[in-house]
Amino acid sequence: xxxxxxxxxxxxxxxxxxxxxxxxxxxxxxxxxxxxxxxxxxxxxxxxxxxxxxxxxxxxxxxxxxxxxxxxxxxxxxxxxxxxxxxxxxxxxxxxxxxxxxxxxxxxxxxxxxxxxxxxxxxxxxxxxxxxxxxxxxxxxxxxxxxxxxxxxxxxxxxxxxxxxxxxxxxxxxxxxxxxxxxxxxxxxxxxxxxxxxxxxxxxxxxxxxxxxxxxxxxxxxxxxxxxxxxxxxxxxxxxxxxxxxxxxxxxxxxxxxxxxxxxxxxxxxxxxxxxxxxxxxxxxxxxxxxxxxxxxxxxxxxxxxxxxxxxxxxxxxxxxxxxxxxxxxxxxxxxxxxxxxxxxxxxxxxxxxxxxxxxxxxxxxxxxxxxxxxxx
Amino acid sequence: xxxxxxxxxxxxxxxxxxxxxxxxxxxxxxxxxxxxxxxxxxxxxxxxxxxxxxxxxxxxxxxxxxxxxxxxxxxxxxxxxxxxxxxxxxxxxxxxxxxxxxxxxxxxxxxxxxxxxxxxxxxxxxxxxxxxxxxxxxxxxxxxxxxxxxxxxxxxxxxxxxxxxxxxxxxxxxxxxxxxxxxxxxxxxxxxxxxxxxxxxxxxxxxxxxxxxxxxxxxxxxxxxxxxxxxxxxxxxxxxxxxxxxxxxxxxxxxxxxxxxxxxxxxxxxxxxxxxxxxxxxxxxxxxxxxxxxxxxxxxxxxxxxxxxxxxxxxxxxxxxxxxxxxxxxxxxxxxxxxxxxxxxxxxxxxxxxxxxxxxxxxxxxxxxxxxxxxxx
Lengths: 377, 377
Prior knowledge:
Shape of chain A: globular
Distance between the termini of chain A: 36 Å
Oligomer: homodimer
Radius of gyration of chain A: 20 Å
Largest interface: A-B, 38 and 38 residues
Largest sheet of chain A: 8 strands, parallel
């Protein structure tokens, strides 16, 4: 297909992992990729310059949050989300399905769409699949998502089935409503942890036809082994020549596992949210910076890391900032955690190309060392 | 005097303003200078890299806050305050006098020193002039301050006199206790808004002899005209060949006025604190970013500014971040406000050298335009 924006440039021969390039209106994204989450038009604490320096190639925005504030009209008047937030590289917006359904008693779902009250001011809103696409067309991200229902876990089989079937009908409506040809609209596979429903959802979504496919509903607190099992089943069933995006997942280990199942794109609030809670990812294990033992620890956060935080500051200083509730703590921690995730994915890409991915898979440390290279090359 | 670390390189011939160079253990400081406040070992939201890029040449730390947390021993083990916070340029630490006296009922003053309870955990502490110097010697800033009493306003004449006289005795004790010859110990002139007491304080402090002189007690909520009058009286009475430092003051207009009285150094929390409250300094007037009219204002914060914030973002975006309580708002606002103050002082330096200071004095906008040049030269 000449129109295919996704090109696989290397496949692992022991797992489903692959290295690819995804073409978008704002440039190429190298996969497998981690996408930092910038829900409200900012990756919390970071400037666009920080993100470029960290090697971020694509970031997330959220249509639901940006719809409520500042509103799509304001983003449009600003010249689109890229201009509004001064980010020149690709953006993916989530449709807001997940967020709307998380509102619980504040929302009412019908075939037509979802009625809900704003968490901010109690005002009434209605988002249909068509409206979600219209909002996302207005925001102007490079990749936009269908409006799906993400059923809570646990839900009974029947509910998951009905929800999945409605999500399929909504996916058709989204595709029909999509107006901006500079944006790629990705479909979302649902179906809970039920293989039969995931299969039906995948087949139905592929039949509608999208330039990329997401796997939703995997970050809803399900037991990890069931999630892994479902992922191993669903991901490879999606078209090989299209990018696959695992939504809202997860730990570094989850990302590596996802890659081994053939996933190309990931997003998760974990690195940024944990950073603000003083919970840091390092090649020598997790660090809770508040811990008293770091009070006099004058070593870097991660001895193997080349990020700005690790090159300049000690654990003792970071702990001091964190205990004092200094904004700089949140910022330096965010830089580090994002660097960890982004380096990890660079290491993953390199190892796939070097044919060492499956042997490195169990060893995050070795993958990280590969990933750090980018900064010192 | 061969030992003089301060060199005047240009004097205004209409006012007391002068341009100078102050030599410190961590490099030269060009005066008149504004010193960003980094109370707890960080200029809030800023990395050292940000500060260097803004053109900051010296920053403040506070002995009182750093004594309570993380404690001088930890800073010492880190290799001193510069290493602890990864700032390679000069630092000035305030002695903590002002902060201790602000504790009100939590402290008890005697000739020996001040006993107080920590705001953090209620623990008991005692700081004498000797202990303050010991703490500051340990922290290792380039310029340190005598331990003074800063009487509240209003206080009666007798109280101010007694306090000022004790501050003189404390200044002698500080000088005697000072051990680190890499650090310059500055004396502090007190005396409230009473000319006679200010005169006695200045004479007494100069008699003890310091490489620089500060004017304290001017940021205690006194009416501006009395403050200006006192400043115009005190500043020129201090030795011309030594740097003069006006503590904790003030607005951009206050700084320009201070320079005209012969002041060389300033610090104030205003640019950084106001930034976090969404109150911005611009060449087109003050801006409260929360104001609804900025919702659709797609112009830069300050049309004449070349800071990172103004070069990349609109008022509408900054307002959005601020309303969402995003950390990035605080950071971008801080960058801008500090840039405003630092550019202003660069403009002041240039105008003194160009002989246009007194004509530009009333026109902050023109001074700012001079100051912006640094970034585009």
